[in-house]
Q: What sequence folds into this?
DNA sequence: GAGCACTGC
């Protein structure tokens, strides 16, 4: 395929932007071309990054198989917790883009590598963008390092300009170039509605029925925005399928979203009998993360859920937003992998033309605390001037810097503190939790701190099947304590260990066994980090106050106070907050002061994972953050803010 | 009485 062309351009240019549809085979072919052309000689390694762990593993597996080699030798992969590479023999190394950033801490100029391929760059994941900024810097010092950016069409020129070091008008001096490779997919007919659709859920259900009644055999993939919508549409289409039974072709309707248990997810990959049409109702998980073979018809509602971060309130949330043209193209393409297909867009062509070309990169809609910490650790002192492919707003950057300063990770000059800041960057956790763990030695509760941090990484520890909610709630109350969710999670973990990590015990107590096993692994990793920093593993032996104070050390910025209006308000910004119904504090008597782990935005702003605190701790532990010394003064400040706001 | 797409160290 474009073998010689690619190799020629890589000799001539430092950076090659390779444009081609996903699934065109380039992920597996290009690394092998590079290897055969000698880019893996003299001990050099060819590195390929992927935004997702599974992709890194499966592509590595596929190539190893093609070449008849054992995975972990010539072909290897490295992702968090798993390193299947061999220091001497590995020539092609797959990794996640996050892993590459981590690798840079050990090998700042990537001297081991001759080529780095950033695959799926058009997705613009947070770490792909960071990698691009860092690689550009490295290239100035290492003219021999080659970079391949593999992307879908839209961003190609932007990437080429970003990496091009030629500042003259003479294009023969360019250091970056673009090459388009053709995909192997089949044409897809795009259909639009003739007028705007009032309700895309109804329209999706109707479209499935119409396809089933009027179009030839072929499976259907419909994109909706969330679990809720998928389940709603599912119920209606199952009813429809039942009414249809007996008349011609059967209909098999299946849901697909990330929260769905693995065995149910697997069902969408099963092949149906000849007389059955499969309909998959999916979230955007089916846009990039998974590929279902045999889809001939795609229905695109025109919306998806996206992470959104507000630099003003510091609240991270998810919002429903119109898709971009790039997403719409990607969705439609899912119909043309087997033979030519049809994509039904539930919006007009005029509406399509008004859509943004591409979604805003993740970099520009995330909290950047962790990312800034990592950049500082890599020697980027002035992150505000760092060359990102799409720079985040100054406000977001300052918010991130503020947080790191408050947590003691950086000093007055923006320099990483020693040892706290440097150690925080080493933790695979958000900065608040990293600080909580690193100071836990002073509270004699390192043991409890890493357990709590590990438990907070896993969502849905408590299982609540819709038909047995009452029993599940009762089971949960057995672990619940008045101090709140953090100590409750600690109890659950301890009980899990003293019951020999029994899956049966979990089932009886409505606990998520897999989730608990995962927090066990994460906890082991954190324990290793404690050892690395020579912090002894020590339990507070039932002294709960020490643990609570330790939590406040990391989370004083997330403090809230009960407000007479019947909800909570953050101390710092006076934002309205509510208790999430999954909190153990939801059904107990009102506690005036709390800290929370995170805010969940869905209609209202909910605090998830809360702990009751003594307000004195706030100014004892964080006088620099709460400038007003006494509780009375904090209250006075709060009142002042209240008066200035019409409510 | 809620339910968030996805990903990563």
A:
């Amino acid at each position: 395929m474009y073998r010689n062309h690619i190799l020629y351009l890589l000799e001539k240019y430092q950076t090659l932007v390779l444009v081609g549809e996903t699934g065109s085979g380039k992920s597996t072919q290009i690394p092998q071309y590079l290897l055969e052309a000698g880019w893996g000689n003299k001990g050099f390694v060819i590195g390929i990054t992927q935004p997702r762990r599974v992709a890194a593993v499966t592509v590595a597996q596929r190539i190893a198989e093609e070449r008849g080699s054992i995975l972990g030798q010539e072909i290897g992969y490295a992702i968090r917790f798993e390193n299947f590479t061999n220091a001497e023999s590995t020539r092609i190394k797959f990794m996640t883009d996050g892993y590459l950033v981590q690798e840079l801490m050990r090998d700042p100029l990537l001297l081991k590598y001759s080529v780095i391929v950033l695959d799926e760059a058009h997705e613009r994941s947070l770490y792909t963008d960071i990698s691009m900024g860092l690689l550009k810097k490295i290239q100035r010092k290492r003219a021999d390092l080659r970079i391949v950016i593999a992307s879908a069409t839209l961003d190609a020129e932007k990437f080429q300009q970003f990496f091009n070091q030629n500042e003259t008008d003479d294009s023969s001096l360019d250091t970056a170039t673009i090459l388009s490779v053709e995909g192997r997919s089949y044409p897809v007919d795009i259909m639009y509605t003739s007028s705007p659709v009032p309700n895309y859920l109804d329209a999706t259900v109707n479209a499935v029925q119409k396809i089933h009644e009027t179009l030839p055999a072929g499976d259907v993939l419909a994109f909706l925005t969330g679990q809720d919508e998928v389940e709603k549409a599912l119920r209606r289409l199952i009813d429809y399928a039942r009414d249809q039974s007996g008349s011609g072709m059967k209909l098999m309707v299946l849901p697909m979203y990330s929260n769905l248990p693995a065995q149910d997810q697997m069902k969408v990959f099963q092949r149906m009998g000849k007389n059955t049409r499969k309909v998959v109702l999916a979230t955007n998980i089916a846009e990039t993360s998974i590929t279902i073979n045999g889809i001939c018809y795609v229905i695109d509602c025109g919306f998806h859920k996206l992470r959104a971060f507000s630099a003003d309130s510091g609240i991270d949330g998810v919002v429903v937003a119109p898709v971009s043209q790039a997403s719409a193209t990607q969705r439609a393409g899912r119909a043309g992998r087997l033979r030519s297909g049809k994509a039904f867009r539930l919006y007009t062509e005029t509406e399509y033309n008004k859509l943004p070309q591409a979604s805003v990169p993740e970099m520009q809609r995330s909290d950047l605390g962790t990312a800034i910490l990592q950049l500082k650790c890599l020697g980027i002192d002035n992150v505000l001037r760092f060359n990102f492919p799409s720079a985040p707003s100054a406000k977001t950057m300052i918010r991130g810097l503020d947080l790191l300063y408050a947590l003691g990770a950086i000093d007055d000059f923006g320099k990483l503190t020693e040892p706290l800041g440097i150690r925080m960057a080493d933790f695979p956790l958000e900065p608040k939790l990293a600080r909580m763990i690193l100071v836990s030695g002073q509270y004699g509760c390192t043991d409890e701190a890493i357990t709590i941090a590990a438990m907070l990484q896993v969502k849905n520890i408590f299982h609540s099947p819709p038909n047995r909610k009452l029993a599940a709630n009762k089971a949960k109350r057995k672990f619940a304590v008045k101090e709140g969710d953090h100590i409750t999670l600690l109890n659950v973990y301890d009980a899990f260990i003293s019951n020999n990590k029994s899956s049966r015990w979990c089932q009886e107590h409505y606990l998520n066994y897999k989730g608990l096993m995962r927090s066990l692994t994460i906890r082991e990793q954190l324990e290793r980090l404690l050892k690395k920093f020579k912090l002894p593993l020590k339990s507070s032996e039932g002294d709960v106050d020490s643990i609570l104070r330790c939590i406040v050390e990391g989370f004083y910025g997330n403090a809230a106070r009960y407000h007479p209006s019947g909800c909570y308000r953050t101390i710092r910004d006076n934002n309205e907050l509510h208790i999430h119904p999954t909190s153990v504090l939801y059904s107990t008597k009102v506690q005036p002061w709390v800290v929370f782990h995170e805010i969940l935005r869905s209609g209202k702003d909910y605090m998830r994972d809360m702990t009751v605190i003594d307000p004195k701790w706030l100014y004892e532990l964080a006088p620099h953050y709460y400038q007003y010394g006494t509780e009375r003064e904090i209250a006075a400040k709060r009142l002042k803010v209240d008066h200035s706001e019409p409510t």
